[in-house]
Specification:
- Its cofactor is FAD.
- Keywords: FAD, Flavoprotein, Oxidoreductase.
- The structure is a single chain.
- The chain is an alpha/beta fold.
- It has helices at about 10-20, 45-50, 60-65, 120-130, 145-155, 175-180, 185-190, 290-305, 370-385, 390-395; strands spanning about 1-5, 25-30, 70, 75-80, 85, 90-95, 95-100, 105, 135-140, 160-165, 190-195, 200-205, 215-220, 225, 230, 235-240, 255, 270, 275-280, 285, 320-325, 325-330, 340-345, 355-360, 360-370.
- It is built from ten helices and 25 strands.
- The protein has a five-stranded parallel β-sheet, covered by helices on one side. Strands 21-22-25-24-23 form a five-stranded antiparallel β-sheet.
- The structure holds flavin-adenine dinucleotide (FAD).
- The site of flavin-adenine dinucleotide has 37 residues, from helix 1, helix 8 and strand 21.
- Flavin-adenine dinucleotide binds near residues 74, 239, 274 and 320.
């Protein structure tokens, strides 16, 4: 039997590791479009950008694992009837296929080549060279990536302006009253955060620093922000364009629409990680989770089911972000209408604070700022779906536990 995994990021590599861990002894091919040995992405916006780490490669012996690792090999098409994967280096037959092609950073329309994205190792290395003391950096987007890029740039002594179209930071992920609380983090770090500010374009300008091309970010209100470097951090989309014509069903956001066992619409083809969505019985909706933990845990299910298993994937999603010296962690999935309960006082942030979302008294999501223990306890409550006593849950001196 030949099992092929397309995409050598976290989800693809973990699928390969899990397949071997679960006893698969047949042929195993892992192919990735990038020329680099597979690497982890979270350090790119942290230690790699700060120059504390040269790279973030996974420490794995692919040969020892019996993985035929094909780098610099892009999948270009798929014929699920014939079980053939087309790649830049020829066709590959498979018996089972796992799609793990992740996501691509979204660029602004007409974005000049000099503007940076932050998705790949090469992106991080290119941006790192621009983050010099005194350099003026404009970050477009106050989401997770924008906040982390701004954090690193301030640490490296850059002058940083963050431009966000929404009225508050993190607007795509958190309710406005929660995202608003992060505004002071920018101010305290010396970052000029401009919200409700739409970008009309980025144009080349007179270079000011040796080796860096100058740019100007044009805002729709007529303001021009001069920059020595620009980072565009406005989100990522599932990297599934190469599946056009394959018949593999995608959802309305372009992710591979997998079932609860991470099977796709084609026999013998599975999908996992940032490129896929799956139905969650727990949250009664289809989820696309573009976070590390999902790539790790989904891979175990994809591997098991590719080997004939019947596992169901219905996680409590989890992610973390390190911004402006704070550890921000979130578990679960909230939606409008859930009751928001503050834990601790965000206005007096010593010791951290949190927000808990309750539905009929049961926690469905939790945000913890500098409170990792809350995250661990809250995640368990969410997993078990147990009622909490709201007054005790609001008291940060009391451990988070069932009523
Ligand atoms: P990817 O990591 O995107 O890997 C997919 C791989 O497939 C890529 O290497 C790509 O080159 C390859 N590929 C794509 N198309 C093809 C093709 N046609 N043929 C062959 N190969 C292909 N999550 C957190 O929870 N916490 C964090 O702090 C955090 N920080 C992050 C920081 C950065 C800078 C980034 C970019 C992401 C961060 N994430 C974080 C998100 C997390 O890294 C992703 O959710 C995770 O990498 C998803 O893994 P994946 O394998 O599904 O996709």
């Amino acid at each position: 039997m030949r099992l092929v995994v397309v995409g050598a990021g976290m989800a693809g590599v973990q699928t390969a590791v899990s397949l071997r861990g679960q006893g698969y002894e047949g042929e195993l091919v892992l192919l990735g479009a990038e020329p680099h040995l597979p690497y982890d992405r979270p350090p790119l916006s942290k230690d790699v950008l700060l120059g504390k780490a040269e790279n973030s490669r996974f420490e794995l012996d692919y040969g020892g694992l019996g993985v035929d690792l094909l780098l610099d090999r892009t999948a270009t098409g798929l014929d699920p009837e014939a079980r053939i994967l087309r790649t830049g280096g020829g066709e590959l037959e498979y018996d089972r296929l796992v799609l793990a092609t992740g996501a691509r950073a979204v660029a602004l329309p007409g974005q000049p080549a000099a503007a940076h994205l932050l998705r790949t190792h090469d992106d991080a290395v290119a941006l790192r060279t621009a983050l010099r003391p005194g350099a003026r950096l404009v970050v477009i987007g106050a989401g997770w990536i924008g906040a982390e890029a701004a954090t690193a740039a301030r640490k490296l002594g850059c002058e940083v302006t963050v431009v966000e179209a929404a009225p508050v930071p993190l607007a795509g992920a958190l309710p406005a009253e929660v995202g608003e609380l992060t505004r002071r983090w920018y101010a305290e770090a010396g970052v000029d955060l401009r919200t409700s500010c739409a970008v009309g374009g980025i144009v080349d300008a007179e270079p000011r620093l040796e080796g860096l091309g100058g740019s100007a970010v044009l805002l729709t209100d007529g303001t021009e922000l001069d920059a020595d470097a620009v980072v565009v951090g406005i989100g990522a989309r599932p990297d599934t364009g190469w599946l056009d014509g394959s018949g593999i069903a995608l959802d309305d956001r372009g992710a591979v629409a997998a079932d609860a066992g991470l099977r796709t619409s084609a026999e013998g083809v599975f999908a996992v990680g940032d490129c896929a969505s799956f139905p969650s019985a727990r949250y009664r909706t289809r989820l696309t989770v573009q976070h590390w933990d999902n790539a790790l845990h989904g891979a175990k299910v994809a591997a098991a089911n590719a080997l004939g298993g019947e596992l169901v994937y219905d996680p409590v999603p989890y992610f973390w972000s390190e911004q402006f010296g704070r550890m921000v962690q979130y578990a679960g999935h909230h939606r409008p209408g859930d009751e928001l309960l503050w834990r601790g006082d965000p206005a007096r942030p010593e010791g951290g604070w949190g927000a808990l979302w309750l539905r009929d008294g049961v926690p469905v999501a939790l945000l913890a700022v500098d409170r990792p223990r809350d995250l661990a306890q809250g995640r368990r409550l969410i997993e078990r779906g147990t009622l909490v006593d709201p007054s005790r849950a609001a008291d940060p001196a009391v451990p988070l536990k069932a009523a």
